[in-house]
Automatic annotation (TrEMBL):
Keywords from the UniProt entry: Ligase
Annotated signal peptide: none
Lineage start: Bacteria, Pseudomonadati, Bacteroidota, Flavobacteriia, Flavobacteriales
NCBIfam families for this protein: birA_ligase (TIGR00121)
Gene Ontology molecular function, alphabetical: biotin--[biotin carboxyl-carrier protein] ligase activity
Coiled-coil regions listed in the entry: none
Protein's name in the database: Biotin--[acetyl-CoA-carboxylase] ligase
PANTHER family attached to this UniProt entry: BIOTIN PROTEIN LIGASE, BIOTIN--PROTEIN LIGASE
Domain BPL/LPL catalytic: 1-177
Length: 243
């Protein structure tokens, strides 16, 4: 990988996107910021990071034969890559909270934001932003947040964790154009947080429903078995898991 290490910027995704417009960056270019002031997450949320204790970085991945309709596979592969890296660090109970929050037990350790660049009917590249809590101990009004340190009690070298993360993510992304997508979907579903457990979900209008996560469909929507045993499919904007 080509690593660009910066001190402080607003967003690694925005920086990498701007760099792509100015020059032809190599595949697997990584931008790592020691401090990120305007990190973003899913649903327009922000990602808090603590300089010297968090990892905030973005990876540029180029593709050659991936259809725009297969964009969800990038999310699945990235999520699996992060999960497998945490496995190697011996973090317990690693799971993926749909669509791409990475958990240990019931604590969120990592958020992912993916922005795709299109060329006709193909995905030409993706900018994959990762925010990972590593040695953090304080979280501002975020009771569901955790870090590698709070889970294991160990301090970690940020650059070593970064290198492992990038390697595992790229290994999964490299498989997208050469291996079975069904195999990827199966691996992703096996990691789903609270899969096959009765859970509470919140709709856009604030109403609640009970259901059991059974998997995802080919579009990446969440498949939930409802109380009447019917199977409903929800997009990211339609429902939120409460836990």
């Amino acid at each position: 990988m080509d690593l660009i290490k910066l001190s402080a910027i607003t967003s690694t995704n925005s920086y990498l996107k701007e760099m792509c417009t100015q020059t032809q960056l190599k595949d697997a270019t990584v931008v790592w910021a020691q401090a990120q002031t305007e990190g973003r997450g899913q649903r327009g949320s922000t990602w808090q990071s603590e300089p010297g204790k968090s990892l905030t970085f973005s990876v540029l991945k180029r593709f050659h034969n991936l259809s725009t309709t297969e964009h969800i596979l990038i999310n699945m592969a990235t999520s699996l890559g992060v999960a497998k890296a945490l496995d190697k660090l011996k973090i317990p109970k690693v799971a993926i909270k749909w669509p791409n929050d990475i958990m240990s037990y019931d604590k969120k350790l990592c958020g992912i934001l993916i922005e795709n660049q299109l060329k006709g009917k193909l995905l030409s590249s993706s900018i994959i932003g990762i925010g990972l809590n590593v040695n953090n101990v304080e979280f501002d009004n975020l009771p569901q947040a955790g870090s590698l340190f709070t889970i294991t009690g160990k301090n970690y070298e940020l650059e070593e964790v970064l290198e492992l993360m990038v390697r595992c993510i790229l290994e999964e992304l490299e498989k997208l154009e050469i291996s079975s997508h069904d195999e990827l979907k199966t691996g992703y579903e096996a990691r789903l947080f609270r899969k096959d457990e009765i859970s509470v979900f919140e709709r856009e209008d604030g109403t609640l429903l009970n259901g059991i996560i059974r998997g995802v469909n080919r579009e990446g929507n969440l498949c939930v078995e409802l109380e009447d045993e019917s199977l409903a499919e929800f997009s990211l904007k339609e429902v939120k898991l409460r836990y």
